[in-house]
């Protein structure tokens, strides 16, 4: 059970990092005015 919980945590971390990476790409592609925030 503990190993399963750990694996789930790993998956969550990867999902969070993936979402953050996508957000950065969207912000980077967005208008330059967006970077002033």
UniProtKB/TrEMBL annotation:
- This protein's name: Uncharacterized protein
Source species: Nymphaea colorata
For this protein's source organism, the top of the classification is:
Eukaryota, Viridiplantae, Streptophyta, Embryophyta, Tracheophyta
